[in-house]
Write a sequence for this structure.
């Protein structure tokens, strides 16, 4: 009986992650970072993948791979393009 009490105790529940629009999240990371675009994208992807932030608005139901998977494709294209110009 005591275990059930602890399982539902409010002080043991983890707080809900903040909900932001994708634009608000990117702007917040840009304001806190002095890095390049790659670092900003990596940070946004990390926050979404780990559940530290949830999206609201137009992208509310999108999963992190929607954005982060596209980033990997763009990165691969950039790498191929850079190899050709050498």
């Amino acid at each position: 009986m005591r275990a059930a009490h602890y399982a539902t105790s409010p002080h043991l529940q983890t707080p809900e992650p903040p909900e932001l629009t994708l634009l608000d999240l990117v702007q917040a990371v840009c304001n806190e970072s002095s890095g390049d675009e790659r670092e900003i994208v990596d940070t946004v992807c990390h926050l979404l993948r780990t559940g530290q932030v949830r999206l609201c608005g137009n992208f509310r139901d999108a999963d992190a791979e929607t954005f982060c998977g596209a980033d990997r494709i763009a990165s691969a294209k950039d790498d191929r393009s850079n190899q050709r110009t050498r």
User: Anything to note?
Assistant: Residues 49 and 65 are 8 Å apart (CA to CA). Residues 64-84 form the longest helix (21 residues).
